[in-house]
Amino acid sequence: MTRLVFWAIDYRVLVIWFATLIVAVMTVPGFASTITLGLALDRAASMGLIAVGLTVLLAAGQIDLSSGAVFAVSGIVAVVLQPNIGIWPAAGVGMLAGLVAGAINGFVVVGLGVNSLVATLATLLAYRAIGHWITQSQPMSGMDIMLALAISQVHWGMLTLRAALFLVLILLLHLWLTYTVAGRNLIALGSSPETARTSGLRPGRMIILAFMGAGLLAGGAGVLQSLSVNTGSPVFGTDLTLLALTAVVVGGTRLEGGRATALGTLGGVLTLVTLTTGMEFASVPAYVQEVVTGMILLTLIVLDRFARPQGAMT
Amino acid sequence: MSVAPLSPPRHSTRSMLATAGSLALPLAVVAVLLLGVSTSSNFLTVSNLLNVLTSMSIIGVIVVAMTFVLITGGLADLSVPATVGMGAILTLALQPMLGTVGAFSAGVLAAGGAGLLNGVLVGYARINAIIVTLATGTVILGVAQWVVGGVIVYGADPTSGNLLKGRVGGVPTIVLIFASVVILGHLLLSHTVWGRWSRATGDSLSAATAAAVPVKLVSAGAFVLTGIAGGISGGLLALTLQNARPGIGQGYEFSAITAVVVGGVSILGGQGSVLRAVGGLIFIQLLTNVMTLTGVRTPVQGLALGLLIIAAVALDLAVRKRGGA
After folding, report:
1. pLDDT (tens digit, 9 = 90+) per residue, B204-248?
2. What region, left, alpha or beta, does residue A251 occupy, with left being phi > 0 and alpha being psi -120 to 50 degrees?
3. Does B287 map to a domain?
4. How far apart are the first and last CA of chain B?
5. How far is Cα A185 from Cα A201, in angstroms, rounded to an integer?
6. Mutating which of A291, A293, A299, A305 best tests the B interface, going by the most B Cβ atoms within 10 A?
7. pLDDT tens, A18-73?
8. Complex ipTM, two decimals?
9. Cβ of A108 under 8 Å from any chain B Cβ?
10. Structural domain of residue A197, as residue ranges?
11. More exposed terminus of chain B, fewer Cβ within 10 Å: N or C?
């Protein structure tokens, strides 16, 4: 019995996700269908792509609050440049914008030594401002509405392009964090920056690369979002950063660095999406959804704190 | 940093640099005042300056409390929009039953209770403040909306806002409330044991623990303060506007952190004062006002603000490093 409880605590994300799924399937008619699954996975994709980047950053002991703004700016760039240079080059430049935004974050954190929480709060304001500047605060339309349909196409009955991309990246991240030297170095850096430095790692370079990766992912997610709705808007992605951050932490990655799990992040993202989709299908009022989601998050966070006393000695 | 002079000269350089550092903010405020006077004839008028003061008062209450969170090393309280929303919604919703003062107090008390929840989770359970306040923020705002059935609440008694819009000796009441919060906050942080404990906790948790400072109590207390401040701010906002939307406090958490950080309070804790944080707020508000008066578009203002935060923090770090602190 005790062993079962410990097992449940260790795999708490899985347990909560299954519990949510079961409740949703039992209470919402028609919830258990591939259409619902496809819809939920597509919704999960934007948050998930950002969560992948955040998992890497958190592992290194950093945070990025600006990814929602990068998401918006990259999408805007990809839409606004379409008439000038064509759809695909514009999408490329949009992703490049994300990469550059990430590099700027990395420079401010590593080069100027500003704490990443403050640094990315500042760049969040700046990137949002740039988004409003380019678009004059109006949503911008793209050229090809058919492309939007093609991108939102559901393959194999359940996967859209971005959902597939998210799942592949999560798997790659898992392999990278678990089996490669670079991935383990990153976690070593997050758990003890001083030791990592003295044992010959180059923390500055690693952190800048992590920020660039997070920027590229946020940018890519933004471009896909803008192409799939054929619109670029400066207010896209406002809640995304905090949602993705929540998913990552709920999955078991520590905000203080040194512990990261890609599969946990996948679990966190799926839990959040199942919760919101299920409650929306059941027509639960938005504010009740917030209370339920918040309570589940709090439970997971508190469990995380007390489940592993050995990891808690910070 | 490579040069390591003997301790006596380093000491004097250090104090000189520290003086330069502490003068930077007042100088920046003077500079933005001069900029305002030289670029806009409307800037140095009583009505404009009173407008600036009034608009900063409501966020200012939160800035004072957020200073304590940063100084104790609590990073930030991201549940501020929720406590502001709770204060605002309860103040107007309970007004018909409890009267204005009673409803306002109930809102502040509820928001303070939410702050206590944050405080227990951050201070006593020692869970990262960012994720705690993110999660509690969702719950708090949801509960506040649930209580009133998820609608926008309108004021039942429009005259209740008049008291706040009124003036005492030419100064708007709301500014006087802000001023008294600043004075109380300053006294608490700079002239009491509680303030000394707060700085010690943020400076070094282990050293403070060893010195028998009640670190858990002090860390938790900072979040109770932001909760109460959020409630006050929300209540004042609702009485002024005579309506309370759930999203009424959106962005307040980041604005408050910005002011505190620009005021030179380190996000790593241990250093700073309420007056410096308020100085940061004054600087930002004046700068925004000058930009608006001279026709600078809002997006450009946002960009300027972002750059300003980075510059302020980077400069602060550089000064401290050079000073050997």
Report:
1. 999 999 999 999 999 999 999 999 999 999 999 999 999 999 889
2. alpha
3. no
4. 11
5. 8
6. A291
7. 888 888 888 887 777 888 888 889 989 999 999 999 999 999 999 999 999 999 99
8. 0.83
9. yes
10. 9-306
11. N
